[in-house]
Amino acid sequence: MSNVNWIERGEIAKQWVLEAAEHIKKALASKIHVEAKSNPDDLVTDVDRSTEAFFYEKVSTHFPSHHFLGEEGISENVEQMDGTVWIIDPIDGTMNFVHSQFKFAISLAVYHEGIGKIGIIYDVMAGELFQAIEGQGAFLNGKPVQKITERPLEESILGLNARWIVEDRNPYRRELAQLVRDVRGIRSYGSAALELAYVASNRLDGYISVKLSPWDYAAGIIILKETGCCVTNFNGESLSLLKGGSVFAGKPAFHKEVIKRYVGRER
Ligand code: 2AM
Ligand code: CA
100 C-alpha vs ligand 2 centroid, how far in Å? Predict the structure, then answer.
């Protein structure tokens, strides 16, 4: 498998993402069936499910030996990252999809023996495609993403869902509240995948979530790495692709300072 051409495979994956996006846009013209999953803010629609099924069909037909992990339940009991694993969130930002029909993304990642090879995050309505292939840099619609530039923490903009500041189950509530006071501004776009892509492309200085799942950040990790950004849990440790948890992505100096001053120990 060492002679796999990941650039070529990235092109195939990109074509599938663009095709899936066309299905999603068409589906918006008719009534969408919405259900709540674990709680009222955790939504799934028939379009999430049919998009995941579309990817599963493509991957299992073209690459029968590969493994598949999707948000909406198509998972072949992926318990380790051996071999080639496709990790897909068919619609990241389902609440945006349902309520406002914009700012949602397809997130697709391919890992080989645990190493990120292809990461794609596609903002379906804006037509913005962020893509990285290991070692090749990160691109937005085919052009290198804007180079990241560091700013002092007080001049930084952080992506964060306001819910985490009032959520009792968040062990970092007080520290994050202080961070919110200290930075220049807070943004919440409602799609973790897009927010990670925005850090990688200099639109945000950092992004924090207290709880995400592997499909929310699998592609983001690969794109962030190509731009020199850091992404870890709140303890500064590498993220697991098999179980979720806290996520903090940032430009290197910003990441370092926030871990040191505000978080830094998983509780
Ligand atoms: P999703 O739309 O694919 O579920 C919203 O702040 C971000 O958090 C979205 O990227 C959303 O992904 C993600 N998220 C992950 N787990 C969630 C949960 N249990 N409830 C709501 N949003 C969740
Ligand atoms: Ca989703």
Answer: 15
Nearest ligand to the CA of 98 is: 1
Task: Quote the mean pLDDT of the chain.
Answer: 94
Q: What is the pLDDT of residues 87-104, one digit of tens each?
A: 999 999 999 999 999 999
Name every protein residue with a CB atom under 6 angstroms from any ligand 1 atom: 38, 41-42, 71, 89, 92-94, 161, 190-192, 212-213, 216
Q: How confident is the model at residue 15 (pLDDT cuts 50, 70, 90)?
A: very high
How many angstroms separate the alpha carbon of residue 17 from the centre of ligand 1? Answer: 20
* Per-residue 3-state assignment (H helix, E strand, C coil) for the chain: CCCCCHHHHHHHHHHHHHHHHHHHHHHCCCCCCEEECCCCCCEEEHHHHHHHHHHHHHHHHHCCCCEEEECCCCECCCCCCCCEEEEEEEEECHHHHHHCCCCCEEEEEEEECCEEEEEEEEECCCCEEEEEECCCCEEECCEECCCCCCCCHHHCEEEECCHHHHCCCCCCHHHHHHHHHHCCEEECCCCHHHHHHHHHCCCCCEEEEEEECHHHHHHHHHHHHHCCCEEECCCCCCCCCCCCEEEEEECHHHHHHHHHHCCCCCC
The CATH number for 6-144, chosen from 1.10.3720.10, 3.30.40.10, 3.30.540.10, 3.40.50.720, is 3.30.540.10
- Ligand 1 probe mutation, 165, 213, 239, most atoms within 8 A of CB: 213
Compute the average pLDDT of residues 12-18: 98
